[in-house]
Design a protein that fits this description.
The chain is an alpha/beta fold. It has 2 domains: 214 residues, P-loop containing nucleotide triphosphate hydrolases (Rossmann fold, 3-Layer(aba) Sandwich), CATH 3.40.50.300; 62 residues. It is built from 11 helices and 8 strands. It has an 8-stranded mixed beta sheet, with helices on both faces. Strand 3 and strand 4 form a beta hairpin. Bound molecules: adenosine-5'-triphosphate and magnesium ion. Keywords: ATP-binding, Nucleotide-binding. Belongs to the arsA ATPase family. This is Arsenite efflux ATP-binding protein ArsA.
Amino acid sequence: MLLELAAQRQVLFVGGKGGVGKTAVASAVALAQARAGRRVLVVSTDPAHNLGHLWERQVGDREVALAPGLDGLEIDPARTTDEHLREVGHTLRRLMPEHLSREVDKHLALARDAPGTHEAAVLERIAEVLESSDHDLVVFDTAPSGHTARLMSLPETMSAWTEGLLRRQDRSARFGAALRGLDDDGAAASIVGTGRRRDQRADRDQEIRRILLRRRTRFAQLRDLLADDTRTAFVIVLAAERLPALETIELYGRLLRSGVSVGALVVNKRSPADRGEFLARRRAQEQVHLETVREALPHVPLLELPLLAEDIVGEPALERLAGEIARAR
Ligand SMILES: Nc1ncnc2c1ncn2[C@@H]1O[C@H](COP(=O)(O)OP(=O)(O)OP(=O)(O)O)[C@@H](O)[C@H]1O
Ligand SMILES: [Mg+2]
């Protein structure tokens, strides 16, 4: 069921609480899709990456081949933020009068630690990866729940923010034009210097507008992609325990409110029923929490994956997990 869901999509987000098996499930689904002949990219957006550990190789902020048809990438939020701010600084310095460049530096230093800056930078990087990727499927292995839900609602927030800036810019451009109109009527317009300053200001306004419009288009496209359940699916991985079950229900609601529908729930690490009394009791306990989720979200497909004897490290182990995913109901 999960593999069918992935087979029909271009983008898959895998989210959930820490340690539940997001990276393992994302990688196993990606591997299965690559084996089925699609070109797949698996991207980790979690600052605490473990894609590299799982594949037993170095993965960084540049695509590396993990298996035939499968590439991997770890987005580095700190580096992404630095690059993002460097680019913003470059643009601002070019557009602002020179005597304000100290102000620009101060503003950017503050922005680095402001809430949301990392997420915004990661979001830009996600948009960039999706725009430039030539893969048939991109699987995002995301950070634990809260972070992801915020990330999913960011395109909306940022479009609104950009929209506001554009409106303000429109108003100030009109205001500027009116002032220039006054200039034109007065003798000052005949002074060459004033004319040049006027042109510079008009160019600058144009450029700011172009930058804002480009960002608005980018975020609107990303938002449309995330909200389009024929192209994108979100999968929540969880353990059948009390808190993960409750958090899953909450995450589902938050995603829904930001326009993202959840395509499947994966209950990972189910205890076996036939390996002694201790594990059988655990399984019975898990069943209670699983029922809570089923009752709260009756329409969302749910599949269960067994607790495996060994850690999932390396391609053969991921293949075993992919086999379990193919068999699961
Ligand atoms: N079905 C399973 N059976 C046994 N071990 C599993 C199973 N699924 C995942 N694991 C193990 O659980 C641990 C956590 O898995 P994984 O790293 O995929 O989780 P995660 O949700 O990505 O964690 P994080 O939030 O830290 O990124 C790993 O050691 C992994 O090998
Ligand atoms: Mg992980």
